[in-house]
């Protein structure tokens, strides 16, 4: 699902020569989805009283991102970052620590910074060892390509790989999971989609992996309003591009969709008769309301809440999310939420209300309407919660492979694979397979618990078993 990050433990060397100067590099981390994301601010002077800054997101391999404004007055620091519609506010202790908050859009979290040396900055940028990341010479043809959609409103950057030779090769497009991702699926230094593409290409299958809107060489378009449906048309553009190539066997074109991509692939397959097979990898087939509820349950379990309180929360949360489909405006939604919340609250014990931080219209210490209005007013999230993936999957008659990790804590393997199997069986699809792979997580890494905190700690990018399962199944369907 959305990108999630874990921090490394860093030992900080204090540069006493800069102790009274705020210029330099400052490291902190913000919590995201059960993990954390490292951020580095690089502050320099432009005059005696003026400063400039860039910031880095090493976990996402993004460096030198421009900050449009930086202001310092005594011990107060403000950095504006227009590209993320947010910024940083902090209080400097005059030495090596800044305490403050980081804001992106409407979300605000604590971000405390500590000065780091140039050597430490380089070590963080290089990241941990990832032995599966492909290294040249690759032993196959690799080509960076760019193309546009039909009306030229969107431009895409991608990498195409195929075996060396002069044949026409079967080809697949890798469809990314949710959140803006680059063509390699970079997360914690792992190049998830590149590792998969490398394996497939070495086994005779051409691969197109594409930057999402707003990543790499792809333009943003109207990304703030885009939903999974919009992204499905991006995939169609990529299919159209592949069909212009003389080295692609257009009779054997497939889609591999990871997470959100796993429900986008069937959208495309229902509209196109040139998709010969699809692979659904960690697909949230039970729907956004169910998936979001399950993820919240998992977080509450980790936080140590009792089972009765968690069950009560889940019941309320799902009821409210199910209101989204019938609410044409936020005002209508709020009225319905108020009625549901009032009725639910009457049935709860004082202990449950206390455990869930219920006081007036609060839930977990947050204003009930602010939380759900925020979800409702995000076009992508509202679509994800309302959309019923089965409506498209039931129209898919090409071969389907669905794979999930048994230790996936983001998309439950058993319930989602069972849903896929039931839908395809009912629609008469004669060629499908569902596989729950033991001991792997949502990324298909070998895992102990499957918790997102393991993603960074694991040197393995993708389980060889998972790679072999996907590749073997595809090779059987391109004969």
Structural description of this entry:
This protein is of the alpha+beta class and 479 residues long. It has 3 domains: 16-126, Beta Barrel (Lipocalin); 141-287 and 387-476, Alpha/Beta hydrolase fold, catalytic domain (Rossmann fold, 3-Layer(aba) Sandwich), CATH 3.40.50.1820; 288-385. It has 14 helices and 22 strands. Strands 1, 2, 3, 4, 5, 6, 7, 8, 9 and 10 form a 10-stranded antiparallel sheet that branches. An 8-stranded mixed sheet has the order 11-12-16-13-17-18-21-22, with helices on both faces. Strands 14-15 form a two-stranded antiparallel sheet. β17 (248-258), α4 and β18 form a beta-alpha-beta unit. α5 (288-302) packs antiparallel against α6. It is globular, with a radius of gyration of 24 Å.
Describe the secondary-structure layout:
Elements: E1 24-32, E2 35-45, E3 51-57, E4 62-66, E5 69-73, E6 76-81, E7 86-92, E8 97-104, E9 107-110, E10 113-116, H1 118-126, E11 141-148, E12 155-162, E13 169-175, E14 186-187, E15 190-191, H2 192-202, E16 206-210, H3 228-242, E17 248-258, H4 260-271, E18 277-281, H5 288-302, H6 307-321, H7 330-346, H8 350-355, E19 362-363, E20 366-367, H9 368-376, H10 379-386, H11 390-393, E21 400-405, H12 413-426, E22 432-437, H13 454-457, H14 464-476
Parallel strand pairs: 13-16, 13-17, 17-18, 18-21, 21-22
Antiparallel strand pairs: 1-2, 1-10, 2-3, 3-4, 5-6, 6-7, 7-8, 8-9, 8-10, 11-12, 12-16, 14-15, 19-20
């Amino acid at each position: 699902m959305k990108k999630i990050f874990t921090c490394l433990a860093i030992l900080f060397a204090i540069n006493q020569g800069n102790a009274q100067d705020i210029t330099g590099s400052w490291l902190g981390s913000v919590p995201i989805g059960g993990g954390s994301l490292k951020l580095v601010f690089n502050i320099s002077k432009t005059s005696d009283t003026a400063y400039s800054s860039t910031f880095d997101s090493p976990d996402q391999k993004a460096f030198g991102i421009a900050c449009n404004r930086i202001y310092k007055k005594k011990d107060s620091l403000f950095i504006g970052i227009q590209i993320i519609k947010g910024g940083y506010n902090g209080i400097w202790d005059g030495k090596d620590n800044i305490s403050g908050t980081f804001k992106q859009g409407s979300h605000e979290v604590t971000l405390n910074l500590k000065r780091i040396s140039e050597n430490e900055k380089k070590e963080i940028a290089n990241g941990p060892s990832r032995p599966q990341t492909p290294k040249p010479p690759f032993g196959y043809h690799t080509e960076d390509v760019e193309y546009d959609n039909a009306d030229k409103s969107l431009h895409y950057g991608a990498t195409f790989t195929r075996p060396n030779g002069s044949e026409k090769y079967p080809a697949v497009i890798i469809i990314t999971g949710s959140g803006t991702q680059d063509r390699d699926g970079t997360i914690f230094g792992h190049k998830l989609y590149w590792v998969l593409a490398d394996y497939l290409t070495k086994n005779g299958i051409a691969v197109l992996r594409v930057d999402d809107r707003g990543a790499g060489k792809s333009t943003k378009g109207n990304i703030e309003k885009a939903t999974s449906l919009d992204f499905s048309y991006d995939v169609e553009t990529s299919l159209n591009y592949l069909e212009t190539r003389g080295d692609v066997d257009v009779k054997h074109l497939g889609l591999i969709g990871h997470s959100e991509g796993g429900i986008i692939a069937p959208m495309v397959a229902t509209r196109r008769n040139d998709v010969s097979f699809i692979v659904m990898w960690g697909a949230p087939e039970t729907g956004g309301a169910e998936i979001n509820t399950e993820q919240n349950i998992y977080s509450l379990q980790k936080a140590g809440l009792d089972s009765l309180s968690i069950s009560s929360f889940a019941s309320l949360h799902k009821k409210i999310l199910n209101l989204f489909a019938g609410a044409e405006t936020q005002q209508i939604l709020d009225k319905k939420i108020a009625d549901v919340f009032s009725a639910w609250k009457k049935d709860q014990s004082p202990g449950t209300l206390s455990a869930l931080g219920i006081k007036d219209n609060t839930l977990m210490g947050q204003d009930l309407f602010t939380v759900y209005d925020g979800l409702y007013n995000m076009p992508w999230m509202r679509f994800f919660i309302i959309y019923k993936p089965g409506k498209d999957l039931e129209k898919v008659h090409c071969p389907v492979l669905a794979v999930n990790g048994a230790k996936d804590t983001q998309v439950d393997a058993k319930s989602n694979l069972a849903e896929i199997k039931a839908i395809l069986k009912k629609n008469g699809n004669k060629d499908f397979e569902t596989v729950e792979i033991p001991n792997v997580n949502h990324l298909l890494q070998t895992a102990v618990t499957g918790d997102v905190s393991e993603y960074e700690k694991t040197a393995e990018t993708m389980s060889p078993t998972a790679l072999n399962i996907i590749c073997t199944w595809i090779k059987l369907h391109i004969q």
